[in-house]
Amino acid sequence: MCHQTIVVRSAPTAEERLPGYLLRIADINGYSGPRDVLSNALTKFGNIAAPHAIEEVARLLGLPLATATNLAYIRSGKSNLRFFGHEVPCRRVSWVNPRLCPLCLRDQEVISCLWDLRFIQACPFHGCQLLRHCQTCGQPLTWHRTSLVRCRCDSDFRKQQTPRASHSAIQVSRRLAIACGLNGVPAPTGFDTALLDLNDLLFLINFFGGRARGASADQEHTQRQTLGQEAIVESAGRLFENPAPIIIEIIDRRAENQPNYKIGNLIKFYFNSVNKYNHPRAKDLLDQLQSAARSYFNVR
Ligand SMILES: [Zn+2]
Ligand SMILES: [Zn+2]
Questions:
Q1: Could you tell me which of 97, 79, 92 has the C-alpha nearest to residue 19?
Q2: Number of H helices, E strands in the chain
Q3: From 156, 166, 221, 284, which residue has the greatest number of CB atoms within 10 Å?
Q4: How many CB atoms sit inside 10 A of residue 280's CB?
């Protein structure tokens, strides 16, 4: 099919990125999916972030090139991409296997790119797990569907229900949603990370989550390869409730094997943060990190 322009146009919302936006445009224009909208521009949907594709998207949808560029998951620098105005490591975002919150979709028929953030395991607003598989046909969600709100089997995602997520997963999602600048996010419990920028929060989630488990550095390294996002989020969520004692425990454990390995990251993070977050509300987090670092140096 050859589309010169798209008849019914609609500006992207702040939470939309190209895959979800194209799905919405396809839906309201009666196309058979995002690939159909772009059939003229792309040979493969996977090329969606290629520069020539972005130009074509801008032309087809009547968007300024800068807007179309912001919608795409384009790498900036070596391995970062722009996400809610932050440069985050590419590995923290994945849009290949779409996920969604059925309740959010009921409220607003928009696909939020927050669901592409891999540490988001729960809806920060509704507290439910994200939907990954259609509960009627069991198939994984796909971008290649004709309707924003329906599966290819025609089941309405808005009527599907996912189980309540764990407390940790909900709290981590809330921290992330706040760092992304979303409005109306319920305040998380535990100490306040609202001042951390998205990248620093991602660092801490990964640091806490990945290190709360294995006994030795080597084991941890191996375990990290296989540690699922859910497990990282679970551990991190627990540490955020009361991090200081557990940070010390991690440091102690680490010190038995490789005294300075990686602990430097936490300390570096602390000292960078002191300059970066010159704000009273950041004090709680920084004090706890500092006490962990101090304890390490005093005790050893
Ligand atoms: Zn939701
Ligand atoms: Zn289905």
A1: 97
A2: 12, 3
A3: 166
A4: 8
Give me 166's structure tokens: 């764990």
Distance of CA 63 to the CA centre of its chain: 25
Q: Residue 1: what pLDDT?
A: 45
3-state helix, strand and coil shares in percent for the chain, rounded to the nearest 5: 50, 5, 40
Report the distance separating Cα 56 and Cα 37, nearest Å: 11
Q: From the CA of 234, how far away is ligand 2's center (Å)?
A: 29
Question: Are the CB atoms for 125 and 104 separated by under 8 Å?
Answer: yes
Tens of pLDDT, residue by residue over 39-58, are 655 555 566 666 777 888 88
The full set of domain ranges for the chain reads: 18-89, 168-299
**Half-sphere exposure (CA, 13 Å, Cβ side) for 213?**
21
Distance 103 CA to ligand 1 centre (A): 5
In terms of residues, how long is the chain? 300
Ligand nearest to the CA of 174: 1
- Which residue in the block uniquely carries the two structure tokens 């949808």? 61
- State the Cα–Cα distance between residues 175 and 188, nearest whole angstrom: 6
Residues 197, 298, 240, 118, Cα dihedral to 10°:
60
Q: How many CA atoms lie within 13 A of 251 on its CB side?
A: 24
| Averaged pLDDT score across all residues of the chain | 80
Can you give the pTM of this predicted structure? 0.82
Give the burial class of 199: count Cβ atoms within 10 A of its Cβ; 0-12 exposed, 13-18 middle, 19 or more buried: middle
pLDDT tens, residue by residue, 134-186 = 999 999 999 989 899 999 999 999 999 999 999 999 999 999 999 999 999 99
CB contact at 8 A, 30 and 85: no
What one-character-per-residue DSSP string does 50-73 give?
SHHHHHHHHHHHT--HHHHHHHS-
User: Which residue has tokens 């796909």?
Assistant: 142
Distance CA 213, CA 47 (A): 38
